[in-house]
Specification:
The protein is an alpha+beta fold. The chain contains ten helices and four strands. Strands 2-1-3-4 form a four-stranded mixed β-sheet, with helices on one face. The chain is globular. Bound molecules: glutathione. The site of glutathione has 14 residues, from helix 1.
Length: 218
């Protein structure tokens, strides 16, 4: 099984299935397709079905789209609790994951994942306030229900979907409640996340479109 990913400092979508594979101890190879450099987009288009990463390759099967990759892994490895076992919690976890996949675009656009950077105070709260309030409501409610440290107690696919948000909150020091701070700290303490972060911090490539100065026209 092989996962095609983007630069670890920037590729928030790649981080999600990578964390699921690592955390649940599923053997896989990874191959990086750069999001920068000469003809990077053309190379990406040639190597993937939709010109985007992540992509999972399992024999003849080539799957694009983060949610589909995670669902495939859950089907392929039913013994691993990639989603919560309880049907009620599984539905809640899938709803949270789907909302992350389809929503939070203000936060995603204004504050791209850039794990090595520190840009406190650069995000305008008027721009991302609605998304942060929704995060407080959604994640706060699930954490209250589970008692933490993760959304459903143990780490699951829903947490993988929100892991890049932890990076965004820390890079831009966006204020959140203590409950969410503890949750994002728990993600940073997860072994698989630490491995990704350590690789990300060694990278030196610049993806201009994900740099705050470029986004804010400075
Ligand atoms: N809907 C896709 C989004 C994937 C995505 O946007 N990936 C980024 C990297 S994090 C990418 O490939 N960007 C290249 C581009 O859009 O040209 C998914 O869920 O996997």
């Amino acid at each position: 099984m092989k996962l095609l990913i983007g630069n670890k400092n920037y590729s928030s979508w790649s981080l999600r299935p990578w964390l699921v594979l690592k955390h649940f101890d599923i053997a896989f190879e990874e191959e990086m397709l750069l999001l920068n450099g000469e003809n990077w987009k053309q190379k990406m288009i040639e190597a993937t079905p939709n010109g985007c990463v992540p992509v999972l390759v399992d024999g003849d099967l080539v799957i694009a789209e983060t949610i589909a990759i995670i669902e495939y892994l859950a089907d392929r490895f039913p013994g691993k609790a990639i989603w919560p076992v309880d049907i009620f919690k599984r539905a809640q976890a899938r709803a949270a994951a789907a909302e992350m996949h389809a929503g939070f675009s203000a936060l995603r656009n204004a504050a791209p994942m850039n794990l090595r950077a520190s840009h406190p105070g650069r995000i305008c709260m008027d721009e991302v306030g609605v998304d942060i309030a929704r995060l407080e409501d959604l994640l706060g409610g699930l954490l209250k229900q589970s008692g933490g440290p993760f959304l459903f107690g143990e780490f699951c696919a829903a947490d993988a979907m929100f892991a890049p948000v932890a990076g965004r909150i820390k890079t831009y020091e966006i204020p959140v409640s203590e409950r969410l701070e503890d949750y994002f700290d728990a993600i940073y303490e997860l072994g698989a996340f630490k491995q990704w972060l350590s690789d990300a911090l060694k990278e030196t490539w610049i993806v201009e479109m994900d740099e705050i100065d470029f986004i804010q026209g400075k």
